[in-house]
Structures are given as structure tokens and as C-alpha cells.
Write a structure and sequence with these properties.
The protein is α+β, with helices and mostly antiparallel strands. It is about 20% helix and about 15% strand. The strands form 4 sheets. A two-stranded parallel ribbon has the order 1-2. A two-stranded antiparallel sheet has the order 3-6. It is globular, with a radius of gyration of 18 Å. This is Enolase C-terminal domain-containing protein.
């Protein structure tokens, strides 16, 4: 069930809701949570996370920002989640499709592969 469907379910039940983050939420997950929050302004509160405090190096650019003076967030700039993978994502940004198979699966970069992924 998508988060937006859960919000609708909660509203129909007459309950209030909070939009939160998960431990170690970084990059695309931060901006996806923000997109959900800006689409559902009736949330009691929105948790912005602390990626700026705990993750000095992000795998996306631009870095999602939190204004710690006012405890506010801004919507992502641009289309989609407004992020691009940067050079720090390279070790994890490798996809693989077996010959004759139409589905993709993500694998570690070749130099990080083990026998299990070969």
C-alpha cells in the first residue's frame, strides 16, 4: 500500500497523521517524504530527518536541506524528487540484466562483487 493511500485511509477513519522518516533515510527517500508532506498539508507534523547532521556525504545532489533556525523544509526543485545521483553513488549504481531476461536486478559494482553475485 502506498503512503498516499494510507493517508487517505487514515482520513476516512477520522484520524490524524504524521509524516515521518526512517532511520538512515537519505537522498531520494528524504525528498519522497517531502513530496508526500507537501501533497498532504493537513498532517499534524512532518519529520524532516537529520541527514544534515549524521550523513556528511550524500549520494545525491543537491543535498536535501533543513532550515534548523525555523525547523522548516522546502519542496524539491525541479522534476520528480529534484535529485541526481552524484559520484559517491557510483559503487551502488550498477544494474544488471541476464541475457534473455527482461527484468533488471541491482548488483554491487564489479570490483565489489562476491561469488554470490557473479
Amino acid at each position: 500500500m502506498t503512503a498516499a493511500k494510507i493517508v487517505d485511509l487514515v482520513r476516512r477513519a477520522g484520524l490524524s497523521f504524521q509524516i515521518g522518516v526512517q532511520v538512515a533515510e537519505v537522498g531520494p527517500l528524504i525528498n519522497s517524504g517531502r513530496a508526500l508532506a507537501f501533497a498532504h498539508a493537513d498532517a499534524l507534523t512532518v519529520e524532516a530527518g537529520q541527514c544534515d547532521r549524521f550523513f556528511p556525504e550524500m549520494v545525491v545532489s543537491p543535498r536535501p536541506a533543513v532550515d534548523r533556525r525555523t525547523n522548516t523544509i522546502s519542496p524539491a526543485c525541479g522534476h520528480g524528487f529534484g535529485l541526481d545521483l552524484n559520484e559517491r553513488a557510483e559503487p551502488w549504481a550498477v544494474s544488471h540484466r541476464a541475457e534473455g531476461d527482461s527484468s533488471w536486478r541491482w548488483l554491487p559494482a564489479p570490483e565489489k562483487r562476491t561469488k554470490e553475485f557473479a
